[in-house]
């Protein structure tokens, strides 16, 4: 009898601790058919940020890595119609200049807007939704990622390296279409994700870092700026978190992203919470 009461109490506690307890009525996931699970496997990742070695600009290291677990990620970007439901519900800022086409990617959103949507959807569904890290985005993008290390023209003259970076960014090809296009316009990658590297750049949760490369090869962080976040698309860039239109400023030199949108990673933590509660119920007191 005592055992049954403990299990019941543990389940009740887990339910109360879970976000599902906040959901009064079931809410259909706006992208039930658009969640793709990708198994973890080794891949190459070029670290995000600004790097130096001995006080001179340096190319970001390319590392062999693997995510700690599989990833569940939307195989398309959040649409304008989905974002509008959040705004109508008071969970997201209303954006006057947003696309009127509900079935096209939501663009013109800042990092803060995208985070607000993720928090709103988390509370509605009862399952954690968040922006991907830059590392997760690169892994999910697969063959669509473009590796663009810093060109080191003259290691003795740092100014030459910065000029080379500016020229490389300024000479990037501009997208043929600036307006958001129908879902699927830019193809599907090997992981089943749509429109990666198209004309919508996607926010990640990764902060802008300055790092020093030590003789051992380790990267030591010298400055963290979370007011600037990594955005990924046809190329990687760094954008101030409140910017909605990078063409008006707030991003790296050169050709700015055409549009800012986002897709989300999904994490189901509820079963783990229940397991922890049950274990805690049987711990000696």
How do you describe this structure in short?
This protein is α+β, with helices and mostly antiparallel strands. It is built from six helices and twelve strands.
Backbone CA Rg: 22 Å
**Total domains, how many?**
2
Average pLDDT taken over every residue: 78
The CATH topology of the largest domain turns out to be paralog of FGE (formylglycine-generating enzyme)
Distance between the termini: 19 Å
Listing every helix as H and every strand as E from the N terminus to the C terminus, the arrangement reads HEEEEEEHHEHHEEEEEH
Examine the secondary-structure arrangement and name the CATH architecture of the largest domain. Alpha-Beta Complex
What class would the helix/strand composition place it in? alpha+beta
Q: What is the top-level CATH class of the largest domain?
A: Alpha Beta
Estimate percent helicity.
Answer: 25-40%
What would your notes on this structure say?
The radius of gyration is 22 Å and the shape is globular. The strands form four sheets. Strands 3, 4, 8, 9, 10 and 11 form a six-stranded mixed sheet that branches. It has a two-stranded antiparallel ribbon with strand order 1-6. 32% of the residues are buried. The two termini are 19 Å apart. The longest helix has 16 residues, at 2-17. It contains six helices and twelve strands. The chain is α+β, with helices and mostly antiparallel strands and 285 residues long. Helices cover 26% and strands 22% of the residues. Mean pLDDT is 78; it is low at 1-28, 271-279 and 281-285. The protein has two domains: 1-18 and 270-285, no CATH class; 30-268, Alpha-Beta Complex (paralog of FGE (formylglycine-generating enzyme)), CATH 3.90.1580.10.
